[in-house]
Amino acid sequence: MSAIKMAVVAANGRAGSKIVAEAVNRGIEVTAIVRHQKESPAQHTLIKDLFELTTEDVQDFDVLVDAFGTFTLENLPEHMVSIKHLTDILSHVSTRLLIVGGAGSLYTDKDHRQQLKDSADFPKEALPLARIMSQTLEQLRLRDDVRWTYVSPAANFLADGPRTGHYLLRGEEYSTNSKGESSISYADYAIGLVDEALSGEHIHQRISLIGQ
């Protein structure tokens, strides 16, 4: 077993379940934080709503992964509310917060004035989610009292894509691989996120992951 202790919020979701599986396979002690009991490879389960979590619930973990997501228009503000709650309960706590972020806020220029969501060909149906997640990231950047890392996926985030075992680590700017593609499977994204959980190399930073 790795010495690290990790908890995953929304561990039953598509991203959360991949992260839990990857972490457990890597020898990490994982607690699934879920609203409803469901079969999971996690060694421990905490049944509790995200918005009811307290500092006492999370302060003993080395890493808390926020894999919460909602996609219905009326619930999109919950992204901002959830991050506010998690950062509040982790204020001045040593536990690191890793957030499953979005790609729409990746910058498309060197001056960091234009984001992917501002592109003419950005899918209109994805704009509301991209906007709220971009606003959430900007609020997160103000929190120097929390050891956060925001992990953006590639533009094409493939829920059912294969686990190739490879990914490319990038920073704030939108990028593509050698094939000119910006895509990554949830499974390969989970590898990169768990690597970051183990290394802790990008505190107070946004990183991005793309498939090779």
Automatic annotation (TrEMBL):
Q: Name one Pfam family in it.
A: NAD_binding_10
InterPro entries from the UniProt entry: NAD(P)-bd_dom, NAD(P)-bd_dom_sf, Polyketide_Oxido-like
What GO terms are given for molecular function? oxidoreductase activity, acting on the CH-NH group of donors, NAD or NADP as acceptor
Q: Where is the NAD(P)-binding domain?
A: 11-190
Q: What is this protein called?
A: NADH-flavin reductase
